[in-house]
From TrEMBL, chain A:
PROSITE patterns: RIBOSOMAL_S18. This is Small ribosomal subunit protein bS18m. GO terms for cellular component: mitochondrial inner membrane; mitochondrial small ribosomal subunit. Belongs to the bacterial ribosomal protein bS18 family. One of its GO terms (molecular function) is small ribosomal subunit rRNA binding. Keywords: Mitochondrion, Ribonucleoprotein, Ribosomal protein, Transit peptide. SUPFAM superfamilies: Ribosomal protein S18. It is found in: Mitochondrion. It comes from Poecilia latipinna. NCBIfam families: S18. The keyword Ribonucleoprotein applies. InterPro entries: Ribosomal_bS18, Ribosomal_bS18_CS, Ribosomal_bS18_sf. Gene3D superfamilies: Ribosomal protein S18. Its main location: mitochondrion.
From TrEMBL, chain B:
SUPFAM superfamilies: Ribosomal protein S6. Transmembrane segments: none annotated. One of its GO terms (cellular component) is mitochondrial small ribosomal subunit. This is Small ribosomal subunit protein bS6m. It comes from the Eukaryota. The lineage of its organism: Eukaryota, Metazoa, Chordata, Craniata, Vertebrata. Belongs to the bacterial ribosomal protein bS6 family. GO terms for biological process: translation.
Amino acid sequence: MLCVRGLQRLKAIFYLPRNTSHRSLTSAEVLPKDDALLKVENLSRESKKGCMLCNVTVDFKNIQLLSQFVSPHTGRIYGRHITGLCGKKQKEISKAIKKAHSLGFMPVTHKYPEFMKDPRICSIKHLD
Amino acid sequence: MPRYELALILKAMQRPETAAAVRRTVETLMERGAVVRNLENMGERLLPYKITKHNERHSRGTYFLVDFYCAPSILDGLLNHLHRDVDVVRPTVLKKEEQEPKKNQQNRQRRDEKTRQEMKR
């Protein structure tokens, strides 16, 4: 009895249903037919694009520009992952905003209402 | 190029009084040996936050920008004088950055890129 069971199990193993829809790998199909070397775009070209403020001078007097990088609800400065600026410009903007705060040019806890309707540069979704 | 910039916030006053205050400030600057290069009026507007100065709470102010050249030794005395002036809400002296003209900047960028490429080789 036991050996019959064992034989049945062995049968089950040997007669596994084979998936015939899968294509079998042959050497001819491994290599793509077109180019052996795929052409990849020059990756260093991506870094030359620059952030959106590459040719713009950042000034503490230009509060309209600075207000675009600040939250309309709390007046907090957005981080780099939200503004998408490069390191240099993010630092310049941050410093200019803080300067404008202390000089009495830009509000700290909110944004001037006339700048609320400016186009949204930063990739943040407000639950308005 | 200007060496210093005075971001001056004056109390919201009538035109002749504002003019007198500005005149007073510029004359003080010139007495101390500064050369005033440019004077800009940014207009009267609502202050970003209420400022208390000289026992008075200000909500509106007139903004002025004065570019001038001067010796660094006079700045201390000048700021002292401006803080004491009753009509001045917030005086701030900033150093003005020397900006390179754009043509030179472009040439410099091209030169830097060339040296970078040569370094790679």
